[in-house]
Design goal:
Length: 345
């Protein structure tokens, strides 16, 4: 096969959700925004719904529409961006629950969708989305009079357990919501792992479901196998790729594989110490990653395989991300559309 193969293990996804759920005494939802972190939100959410997940979170209403079509009626679908202008029909027709972020959104919800469910997102210090404490104080009674189904916020530094911002945001969230008899949610994956004080009534893990940090015990969900197009012998002193960025220090065998930054394998990988694997044997990427091709030093292999693997149990999305100077989220969500995708489970 000339196309790279991306294998997505839905059983591992479900195992990760169950493992995170077991750490709480509250409901565990699932974040499936960005098309399920690039892995297909419909398939991911269907597998999780079959395992018992009853609530899902997406970024925008249009993602919620696609998810509702995949899931059918029943599971809850919440929208982080809230009630944007022009969203009313989508929110109503597809039973989506906006997380209201401002007074303007609250008024829009009351005026266009009175009586339909919504949540409220509060800004406890991240300064990204949600009502700030002063705005919440001004509209709290109005909002509560409309019967919101969830009060939520989002942690800025939950992947750093010792960071003082976590305790600050926890206190702020409690100050804003204690005494209100409405379900509350503060934590995604990182917050869930901080412990019970951060769990409240609902946790909403995202990256941990898909095999990423900070959930260090996560099972790998993706494997990426890249077909070898061609191999060539180089003499010591010959160079490889754009800009002559790599020079052979010995007689070398170079394999060219079919994938590149057009497939989400970002250019920075070429200088970051990324390996491709032939079974358990690591082979370094050499030269620059180009649009459709990556070159790999396979000199130490006794036999050149038909493909080399980039994402494996040995080299997770986070290891790839570290070497490329980014985060696992970017690696996952950048995986392109040219891969031949196979779903297990």
């Amino acid at each position: 096969m000339s196309t790279a193969k991306l294998t997505i293990d839905l059983d591992a996804l479900v195992t990760n959700w169950r493992a995170l759920d077991a750490k709480t005494n509250c409901e565990t939802a699932a974040v499936v925004k960005a098309n399920g972190y690039g892995l297909d939100a419909g398939r991911a959410a269907t597998a999780l719904a079959n395992a018992g997940a009853r609530n899902f979170f997406v970024a925008v209403a249009e993602e919620g529409v696609a998810l509702r079509r995949a899931l059918g009626a029943g599971p809850g679908i919440s929208v982080f961006s809230g009630h944007m202008e022009g969203d009313a029909k989508l929110l109503k027709d597809f039973q989506l629950t906006p997380m209201i972020n401002s007074l303007d959104q609250l008024l829009r919800q009351i005026e266009t969708l009175p009586g339909l469910p919504f949540g409220v997102q509060l800004d406890t210090g991240m300064n990204r989305l949600g009502m700030e404490p002063g705005e919440w104080a001004a509209v709290r009674d109005i909002a509560l009079g409309q019967g919101p189904v969830l009060l939520m916020s989002h942690l800025a530094c939950a992947d750093e357990p010792g960071h003082g911002m976590n305790a600050h945001q926890l206190k702020t969230f409690r100050d804003l919501t204690d005494g209100i008899e409405i379900p509350r949610s503060l934590s995604a994956t990182g917050g869930l792992l901080l412990g019970r004080d951060y769990h409240f009534d609902l946790c909403r893990p995202g990256i941990g479901l898909y095999g990423g940090l900070p959930f260090g015990d996560a099972m790998p969900v993706v494997q990426l196998d890249l077909p070898v197009i061609q191999t060539r012998a180089l003499a010591a002193g010959e160079t490889v790729g754009y800009g002559n960025m790599w020079t052979a220090k010995r007689p070398s065998q170079i394999a060219t594989v079919a994938a590149g930054y057009a497939d989400g394998l970002i250019r920075a990988m070429g200088s970051g110490g990324i390996q491709l694997y032939a079974g358990d044997t690591a082979c370094p990427v050499v030269g620059r990653v180009s649009m459709d091709l990556i070159t790999v030093d396979v000199t130490d292999l006794a036999e050149i395989p038909a493909h080399l693997s980039l994402l494996t149990p040995e080299q997770t999305v986070d290891k790839v991300a570290d070497a490329a100077g980014t985060i696992g989220y970017e690696i996952l969500t950048s995986l392109g559309h040219r891969y031949a995708r196979t779903y297990k489970g």
